[in-house]
Amino acid sequence: xxxxxxxxxxxxxxxxxxxxxxxxxxxxxxxxxxxxxxxxxxxxxxxxxxxxxxxxxxxxxxxxxxxxxxxxxxxxxxxxxxxxxxxxxxxxxxxxxxxxxxxxxxxxxxxxxxxxxxxxxxxxxxxxxxxxxxxxxxxxxxxxxxxxxxxxxxxxxxxxxxxxxxxxxxxxxxxxxxxxxxxxxxxxxxxxxxxxxxxxxxxxxxxxxxxxxxxxxxxxxxxxxxxxxxxxxxxxxxxxxxxxxxxxxxxxxxxxxxxxxxxxxxxxxxxxxxxxxxxxxxxxxxxxxxxxxx
Length: 294
Known about the structure:
The radius of gyration is 21 Å and the shape is elongated. The chain is α/β, with parallel strands linked by helices. A hairpin with an 8-residue loop joins strand 5 and strand 6. Helix content is 47%, strand content 10%. A six-stranded mixed sheet has the order 3-2-1-4-5-6. The chain contains 14 helices and six strands. It folds into two domains: 3-168 and 246-290, 5'-nuclease (Rossmann fold); 172-243, DNA polymerase, domain 1. The protein has helices spanning 9-19, 32-48, 64-68, 81-87, 90-97, 109-122, 161-168, 175-182, 197-207, 210-215, 223-231, 233-243, 262-275, 281-290, and strands at 3-8, 52-57, 101-103, 126-131, 144-148, 157-159.
């Protein structure tokens, strides 16, 4: 029990909803997202045996990114009704766990996670962020890694500094410039036409950030790439600003994480019984034995 787990709550919840077939209670109440998220949560507790947990959630209000760019995430469809119904139940599960569930108006959960991870690092706490969002790779550093959960059927991957370097040939700090050049479809961030992954990674490795790249455009070759970048300078600056996570989110007073306790298992059990998650009750018993009595 040496590591704190930080969960990218909505990323994982939405992933569960779209990964699983529809599930309902006997009364017809949809439960697939709650069930899938619960399965993951129990698995993390059982296998990671964390020092403690914390949840990060997106605020319902627009963020500073939406204010800077009206097209940011504008392509995302409205959540289907079964998902919205389960989102209304999610706070009950988080309350049962008893760990901090942090929302910061004006910021996204990714910014909350980045700020939480930095604060925990300052305390000397090892931290693992659990997410299905590659944006959080830029938070990886000494004492912080990311457990990335891809599509259903894909094995989770732990990204530390070495894994980031193997995949991109970059440091985490250089990733926002890469995004500014190749774009991000999931966030509706535009790419620079004609700039592919390899060129973007070469430029990010050499210049590090948009300000340095655009200041030193005369050092870029070939000429066609230089002129393409020059023509897209404003877009590159804005996209990098949108892609770069913030580490200055005002976190609420109180602990950064909370250790799981046996009373939490009892609260979770009551909710699982209500939701008809009978198959998960033995897993709670395993946690009581393995987590609290190793």
